[in-house]
């Protein structure tokens, strides 16, 4: 296989992965009212922060396998929105850790519930399970969207 064919095959695989996995998740995040201005990676950063009491920006970048500058710019935006805060580490006050604010925690909990409902609906649709159960879940999801708007 030539290098050009290998590159073409790789691009096709990346595109297929994007279309089947990343794009639907990104669209789900964008339909959630409080995250409408954010991408799926930002939602994942908030999730990662929520899983730790406190975490450094460097650790967050490493855990998500992205550059420190990319995470730092996203963190700066979330701080400005009041969704996260930066606090000095107790052991070494030169090190700053980030954590969700009460506002960020509330949005993260709502987003988690919203995505769980959406994933459940998608799973039911893919598995062609009970149609009435799928309608019930989709109705519940719609109700959540209305209450958050």
UniProtKB/TrEMBL annotation:
Q: Which domain of life is it from?
A: Bacteria
Q: Name one Pfam family in it.
A: MarR
Q: Where is the HTH marR-type domain?
A: 7-143
Q: Which terms are listed as keywords in the entry?
A: DNA-binding, Transcription, Transcription regulation
Chain segments annotated as transmembrane: none
SUPFAM superfamilies under this entry? Winged helix' DNA-binding domain (SSF46785)
What is the recorded name of this protein? HTH marR-type domain-containing protein
Organism of origin:
Furfurilactobacillus curtus
């Amino acid at each position: 296989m030539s290098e050009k064919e290998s590159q073409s095959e790789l691009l096709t695989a990346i595109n297929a992965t994007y279309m089947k996995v990343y794009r639907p998740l990104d669209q789900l995040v964008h339909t959630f009212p409080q995250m409408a201005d954010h991408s799926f990676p930002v939602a994942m950063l908030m999730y990662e922060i929520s899983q730790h009491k406190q975490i450094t920006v460097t650790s967050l970048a490493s855990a998500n396998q992205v550059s420190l500058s990319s995470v730092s710019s996203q963190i700066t935006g979330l701080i400005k929105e009041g969704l996260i805060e930066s606090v000095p580490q107790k052991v070494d006050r030169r090190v700053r850790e980030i954590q969700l604010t009460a506002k960020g925690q509330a949005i993260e909990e709502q987003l988690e519930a919203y995505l769980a409902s959406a994933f459940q609906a998608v799973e039911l649709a893919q598995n062609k399970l009970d149609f009435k159960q799928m309608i019930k879940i989709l109705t519940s999801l719609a109700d959540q969207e209305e209450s958050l708007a």
